[in-house]
């Protein structure tokens, strides 16, 4: 996509998977996607278990969870991608896709995160991501439906996911 083109949907972006492969988000077209910035050494890290539970419950109905490791908050994601994948698998049996480490704020923020933040600002209109485990729910049409705070437990998202899945 050219620099002058304005992204219209999640499918306009590509990320790099935690295994280093290109992951065009158009592959998730027609699905409901929960995008979350994650970290391995955060007080909220146990949310991985809740996210995996949501994934197991709803993936057959069209839910994808995309975990995006980020080291911008308190240095809580210092490991390599391989270490992150191993940690998530070993400790939380994570089976949903993870991206390579990326920035969600600042000059090097990934364009997908810039679009997510613009689409659904947080409290008082602030776009910045405040902490790990901020969650964006994207509908089947690729548009952001809702932003959830880091402290919103994954289980609390079930009603919104149910609505999005139709």
Q: What is the typical, i.e. mean, pLDDT? A: 94
Low-confidence regions:
none
Reported CATH architecture: 3-Layer(aba) Sandwich
- Beta-strand proportion: 15-25%
Estimated structural class: alpha+beta
Total count of strands? 6
Order of helices and strands: EEEHEHHEEH
**What topology, given as strand order, has the largest sheet?**
4-3-5-6
CATH fold group:
Glutaredoxin
Could you name the key traits of this structure?
alpha+beta, Glutaredoxin, two-stranded antiparallel sheet, globular
Detailed description of the structure:
The chain is of the alpha+beta class and 166 residues long. It has one domain (12-165): Glutaredoxin. The strands form 2 sheets. Strands 4-3-5-6 form a 4-stranded mixed sheet, covered by helices on one side. The protein has helices spanning 47-58, 81-92, 111-119, 158-165; strands spanning 14-16, 22-24, 32-38, 63-69, 135-138, 144-148. The protein contains 4 helices and 6 strands; from the N terminus they run βββαβααββα. Helix content is 25%, strand content 17%. A hairpin with a 5-residue loop joins strand 5 and strand 6.
Q: In a few lines, what is going on in this structure?
A:
The protein is α+β, with helices and mostly antiparallel strands. Helices cover 25% and strands 17% of the residues.
């Amino acid at each position: 996509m050219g620099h002058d083109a304005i992204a219209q949907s999640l499918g306009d972006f590509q990320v790099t998977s935690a295994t280093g492969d290109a992951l065009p988000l158009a592959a998730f077209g027609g699905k409901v996607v929960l995008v979350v910035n994650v970290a391995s050494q955060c007080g909220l890290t146990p949310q991985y278990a809740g996210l995996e539970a949501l994934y197991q419950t709803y993936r057959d109905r069209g839910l994808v969870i995309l975990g995006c490791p980020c080291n911008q908050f308190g240095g809580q994601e210092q490991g390599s991608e391989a270490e992150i994948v191993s940690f998530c698998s070993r400790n939380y049996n994570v089976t949903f896709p993870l991206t390579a480490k990326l920035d969600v704020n600042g000059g090097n923020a990934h364009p997908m995160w810039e679009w997510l933040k613009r689409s659904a600002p947080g409290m008082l209109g602030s776009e910045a991501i405040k902490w790990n485990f901020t969650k964006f729910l994207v509908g089947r049409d690729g548009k952001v439906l809702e932003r959830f705070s880091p402290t919103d437990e994954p289980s609390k998202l079930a009603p919104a996911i149910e609505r999005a899945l139709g």
